[in-house]
Design goal:
Elements: E1 5-6, E2 9-10, E3 19-24, H1 30-38, E4 46-53, H2 59-66, E5 70-73, H3 79-92, E6 97-100, H4 109-115, E7 119-123, H5 135-141, E8 146-153, E9 163-170, H6 177-200, H7 211-215, H8 217-224, H9 231-243, H10 250-254, H11 259-273, H12 277-283, H13 288-302
Parallel strand pairs: 3-4, 3-6, 4-5, 6-7
Antiparallel strand pairs: 1-2, 7-8, 8-9
Helix pairs in contact: 1-6, 9-11, 11-12, 11-13
Length: about 300
C-alpha cells in the first residue's frame, strides 16, 4: 500500500518493515501500557523501543522497564534542553513514530515540524471540543450527553492538530469526573493502538497541501468545507482507493460520484472508525471485487498481529 501525498512528499507509511516507536509520558502511563501490550517485541506492525519522560518519578518509566523497554528520564530543565536530548535519543534509536501518552508539555515548532505526520497524541475529549486540561469536569459542567477520545496528529498548537481517529462513550446520570475518566480510559486503551495501526498501514495522514491539484478543485472545496471530525473519513477513503488501484476515482468519490468503489471506500472508512451492523450489511451487497478488498483491510486493522 503506497503512501498518499502529504506536506513533506509521500507519507512515510507503510514502511515495509516493523516500525520503531517511542512514547513520551509524564505520569501513570496507562496508555503506554496499552501500547506496550499492543506492540510487543516481534510484532509485525512494530514495537515500542524507547520511553522518555520529563518526570523521573513517572510510573510510566517503571512500566517500560518491567517489559524490557529502554526508559529514560530527562528531568525538565527547560524546553530547549529537553527537546535537544529527546531528539538525539530518537535519532540514536532509529525511531519512526513518536506517540505522546499523557505527556504534559507543549512541544516547540522545532520539535514538531520535522516529526509532523509521525507524531501523535491522544486527548480525552471529542476534539475540537474541550482541548486542554480538566476535560471531564468541563464536559459534566456543560451537560454533555456523550464524550470520548481523540487521536490526532500533533501540530504547533494545544490539541489542535488534524484528527486521526475518535471514539465515543455516553455521559450517564450521576457520573463524576472519576467515573467518566475511567470510562474514557477504557476506550483510549483500544483506540490508540487502532489509530497507530491505521497510520502504519498508510490509512491515516494529515491533509496534504495542494489538494486541488491532487483531486480536483471541486473535490478540494468539498473537503475544505468539512468539519474537522469529518475530514479523516474522506482522507481514509482516499487512501483506500489508492491502495485498491482506484485512486483516479478519489476526487469523484469526495463528490459522491465514485460508484461502487467510492461507496466501498467510504463504508470501509466508517467501519474502520466504528463498527456498525447496518454498514456491514451494506458492504456485503457490493460487488465481490470491492467487498473482498474492504474485508481484507478491516480484518488486518482489527487483528493485533
Amino acid at each position: 500500500m503506497e503512501g498518499v501525498p502529504s506536506e513533506g512528499g509521500l507519507t512515510p507509511f507503510p514502511l515495509g518493515r516493523p516500525a520503531r516507536m517511542a512514547v513520551l509520558a509524564s505520569g501513570r502511563g496507562t496508555n503506554l501500557e496499552a501500547l506496550l501490550q499492543a506492540f510487543p517485541p516481534g510484532n509485525p506492525w512494530g514495537e515500542v523501543v524507547l520511553v522518555l519522560s520529563d518526570n523521573p518519578e513517572a510510573y510510566a518509566l517503571e512500566r517500560a522497564r518491567s517489559r524490557g523497554v529502554e526508559a529514560v528520564a530527562l528531568p525538565w530543565r527547560g524546553r530547549r534542553a529537553f527537546e535537544a536530548e529527546a531528539l538525539a535519543l530518537l535519532a540514536q534509536k532509529g525511531v519512526d513514530l513518536v506517540l505522546l501518552a499523557g505527556f504534559m508539555r507543549l512541544l516547540s515548532p522545532g520539535f514538531v515540524e520535522p516529526w509532523y505526520g509521525r507524531l501523535l497524541n491522544i486527548h480525552p475529549s471529542l476534539l475540537p471540543d474541550y482541548p486542554g486540561l480538566h476535560v471531564h469536569q468541563r464536559v459534566l459542567a456543560a451537560g454533555e450527553r456523550e464524550t470520548g477520545s481523540t487521536v490526532h496528529f500533533v501540530d504547533q498548537g494545544m490539541d489542535t492538530g488534524p484528527i486521526l481517529l475518535q471514539g465515543r462513550v455516553p455521559v450517564l446520570p450521576g457520573d463524576t469526573p472519576k467515573t467518566l475518566e475511567s470510562r474514557v480510559l477504557f476506550l483510549e486503551h483500544r483506540l490508540y493502538p487502532k489509530a497507530v495501526r491505521l497510520l502504519l498501514l498508510g490509512l491515516a495522514f494529515p491533509p496534504p497541501k495542494g489538494l486541488g491539484g491532487l483531486l480536483g478543485e471541486e473535490a478540494a472545496r468539498r473537503f475544505e468545507a468539512l468539519s474537522p471530525r469529518e475530514r479523516p473519513l474522506y482522507l481514509r477513503a482516499w487512501a483506500l482507493l489508492r491502495a485498491w488501484g482506484q485512486e483516479a476515482l478519489a476526487g469523484l468519490a469526495f463528490l459522491g460520484q465514485g460508484g461502487v468503489w467510492g461507496q466501498g471506500a467510504f463504508l470501509t472508512a466508517h467501519l474502520l472508525a466504528q463498527d456498525h451492523p447496518a454498514l456491514r450489511a451494506e458492504l456485503a451487497t457490493l460487488p465481490e471485487a470491492v467487498r473482498t478488498r474492504a474485508e481484507a483491510v478491516l480484518k488486518r486493522v482489527e487483528s493485533p498481529l
